[in-house]
Each structure stands twice: as C-alpha cells, then as structure tokens.
Amino acid sequence: MSIAGRHITALMRQIATRNAIELVHPFAEFQTFGALAYIAECYGFRYESVRLVGKHRILHVRLVRDPDPSARQRAAANSAAFPDPGPGRPVPGMYLGSLTPVPEAQADVELITALIRHDAFAAAANRKQLQFIGWGSGVLFLLMAALTGVYAVLLPLAVLMPAFVLGALRVNTMRRAKLARQLTAAGCTPVRDGAGVERYVRPAPAPFGTPYGTPQGPLQGTPYGAPQGPAQSPAQGTPYGAPQGF
After folding, report:
1. Is pTM beyond 0.85 here?
2. Which whole-number Å values give the CA distances from 54 to 30, 59, 76, in the listed order?
C-alpha cells in the first residue's frame, strides 16, 4: 500500500468512528495535511486547530464534525458518490491513488493548507519563550567566559546564539505575515483565540451542491467521465458521481 493509501485509510477509519479526529503524520508535508483535511471536510468535518506535541514538536491537525446542516448534506452526498473510498479507489477531489488534488479542488486545498501552515507557525513561535532563550543563552555564555577565561570560544557563542534564535523568530514572523496576506485575500477574517494568538476564520461555505468536478484517474488526468447506470462495474469504466462542494 502506498503512503497516500495508508494516510487515506487511517483518515477514513477516524471519520467512520469519531466526532473529532487528529491527523498525525510526523514526516508529512503541509500539502498532505491540507489534502487530508479537505477529504475530511467533504465528509462533514471542519478544520479546527493545530498543536505541536512532544520534544520533536510533531504536528497534530485537529478536525471536528461540523454541525451545520449543509455539512451533513455534503457528507451524505459524498458518501453516496464515493461509497467505498480508500487505497486504489476514488476519494473526493483527488486523483486516483494519490493525495494530489484535481483542478477543481486545488484552491480549497491550498486555502486549508495555508490555514494549517499559519497556525503551525504561530504555535512554533512562542515569542516570549524564544526571546528568553535567545537573550538568556547570551548572558549564560558571557558568565561562562568570565568564569573560565575561555573568551575565544564563549564570546562568539554569546553573540551567535541570540542572533540565531531571534533570527529564526524573525523568519517565522515574515512567513506568517505572507500567509496572513494570502488568507486575507481569500476572504478569511483575522480573530484572536483564548490565548491571544491571531488566527484566521474562513468565510461561510458556499451553498450546498457546488461540484468540485468528477473524480480523476491516475496522475495522467484521465477522468472517469459522466455517471453511468448501475449495470456496469468500476472495472469496466463506470465513473462515480461528482463530489460535492462546501
């Protein structure tokens, strides 16, 4: 089974049994999380937040079941159009056998990915903590230099460590600002969460029934075509119904 297949299998298992799911794939790219979150939203979930867990700061992406009636309609429509999603079988908005979005779903996947990236950068950038580490390390190396007399080694470290930490914080801030512009242009609204961290809320979903387009074949892009009668089987080329939008 491919990596994409394993990710989809784990996701569909959670969708079938839980009202709140977490995507945890330590070596996955942000685009993978965006694609998986998109599929979950097609089945009635909604992206909620991220958190970084453990010493290695592993990304956890949380989604919750959306109580909005349009979300339930969307889930029912996609469950009917894709009755058996999984490895080697069509899933909403993705090319067959992959987590690469079809053109109709590309914009939505990119928007969800941008939200996840922005929230992940915000979670990683504890400004007060990083400033304390940066300046504290500089003071510590200065004290060690004064006590040991090893100035040639410790004085450069007293300068470089704060510069490195504060530089990383600056880069993080610039990345978040770029994502913020992208999210604002897409119609998202900035808000502050309970901890005072800036986040973005997407605009209300489009009216139910907006199709993403028919599911596609392998990455060459061959579509299954228009829906056929029940007498044919998928092996004979029977296409699936179009996935439904938000």
Report:
1. no
2. 19, 9, 37
